[in-house]
Design goal:
CATH topology of chain A: Hypothetical Protein Ychn, Chain: A
Distance between the termini of chain B: 29 Å
Helix content of chain A: 25-40%
Structural class of chain B: alpha/beta
Structural class of chain A: alpha/beta
CATH superfamily of chain B: DsrEFH-like
Number of strands of chain A: 5
Oligomer: heterodimer
CATH superfamily of chain A: DsrEFH-like
Number of domains of chain B: 1
Strand content of chain A: 15-25%
Shape of chain A: globular
CATH architecture of chain A: 3-Layer(aba) Sandwich
Strand content of chain B: 15-25%
Helix content of chain B: 25-40%
Strand order of the largest sheet of chain A: 4-3-2-1-5
Strand order of the largest sheet of chain B: 4-3-2-1-5
Shape of chain B: globular
Radius of gyration of chain B: 14 Å
Largest sheet of chain A: 5 strands, parallel
Number of helices of chain A: 4
CATH class of chain B: Alpha Beta
């Protein structure tokens, strides 16, 4: 089975990219593929645990579901820092701090890379 | 273990100001080069405005990416699509000479895209 790297650049609530990658990653995981989602730039907001919408699924809860389903969720630490996001306290559980340098290594290690921005 | 070096093309179609997309692509390219992954960098559509000479973003309180772009130009080279330039009535001498931009046709662009394993657009 393959290793899929999804790079997300867009924030929640503006485009439907987070919804798209959720469905896409879910389908890939069900097919037995290994999925990694890297959130860069404004996409770091997708991982904020404090998103609350009554009776509605949030982008962060979709990301949390992907993590439960075995996806790896990585965040660009510098992007988060620039936006005042506290990596220790603001993000959903299971998100791993990463960097653009590590993303370059990930690109080498994955079979397919797809970017949503 | 890593496989052979992945061939990556970064396509910049966003203008230099109004969003952080172009600047983010330069940040990513810099990180890649630091990790010995050498991307190709291609400017298309409004992205070609990044290459125009005499930009003074400091005058508007913005951070200049000129030096970073010059470094990228020196390390991996910069390409621009000639159609995108002509559509905007830009000529080669409107571009900053320090970037030493190579202009390519749409056919060559198609070839460049097909020769890379991964294409990321900004």
């Amino acid at each position: 089975m393959g290793k899929l790297l999804i790079i997300l650049f867009s924030p929640p609530w503006q485009l439907e990219n987070t919804d798209t990658i959720y469905e896409f990653a879910k389908a890939a995981i069900k097919e037995g593929h290994e999925v990694t989602v890297f959130c860069d730039g404004d996409a770091t907001y997708n991982l904020m645990a404090t998103q609350i919408v009554p009776d509605q699924t949030t982008p962060a809860s979709k990301m949390a579901q992907l993590i439960k389903m075995s996806a790896k969720a990585l965040v660009c630490g510098e992007s988060a820092r620039l936006r005042g996001i506290d990596l220790q306290n603001n993000l959903i559980k299971g998100v791993v701090r990463s960097s653009l340098g590590k993303l370059s290594e990930l690109m080498e290690q994955h079979d397919r890379i797809i970017a949503f921005g | 273990m890593s496989k052979m070096v992945t061939k990556i093309l970064l396509i910049i179609k966003s203008p230099p100001y109004g969003s952080e997309r172009a600047a983010e692509s330069f940040r990513m390219a810099t990180a890649m080069i630091a990790m010995d992954v050498l991307p190709q960098i291609l400017f298309i559509d409004d992205g070609v405005y990044c290459l125009v000479r005499n930009q003074k973003p400091e005058a508007a309180g913005l951070v200049s990416f000129g030096e970073r772009l010059k470094t990228l130009a020196d390390l991996v080279g910069l390409y621009a699509v000639s159609d995108s330039l002509s559509q905007r009535k830009l000529k080669s001498n409107d571009l900053d000479e320090k970037y030493n931009v190579k202009t390519i046709s749409l056919d060559e662009t198609a070839k460049m895209i097909s020769q890379n394993e991964t294409v990321i657009t900004f």
